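Q: what sequence does this backbone want?
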């Protein structure tokens, strides 16, 4: 149960603002995404050398948009302004999770 620690953190630290799990290779992408989805005040994440991947990115985008979905084109400017004012840092160098980028 490598994600059990993240589950405890997300339940006990609901006001968590900064998370540094650099090098924690035993937590999964799903575990990280669950924590991101639960900790609504999170504004700084260091996930270098972890399995941070597509599920975590989706959770981060959902948390940022506040709607559970990616921001629509009509609300993009307002939501982007909110992201810039609240989210401070995402450091994810060396991640081993699978990220897919579409252009």
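A:
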């Amino acid at each position: 149960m490598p994600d059990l620690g993240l589950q405890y953190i997300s339940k006990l630290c609901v006001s968590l603002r900064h998370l540094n799990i650099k090098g924690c290779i035993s937590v999964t992408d799903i575990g990280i995404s669950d924590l991101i989805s639960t900790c609504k005040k999170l504004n700084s994440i260091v996930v270098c050398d972890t399995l941070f991947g597509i599920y975590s990115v989706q959770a981060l985008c959902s948390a940022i948009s506040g709607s559970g979905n990616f921001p629509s084109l009509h609300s993009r400017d307002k939501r982007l302004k909110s992201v810039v004012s609240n989210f401070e840092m995402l450091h994810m160098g060396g991640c081993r999770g699978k990220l897919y980028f579409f252009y």
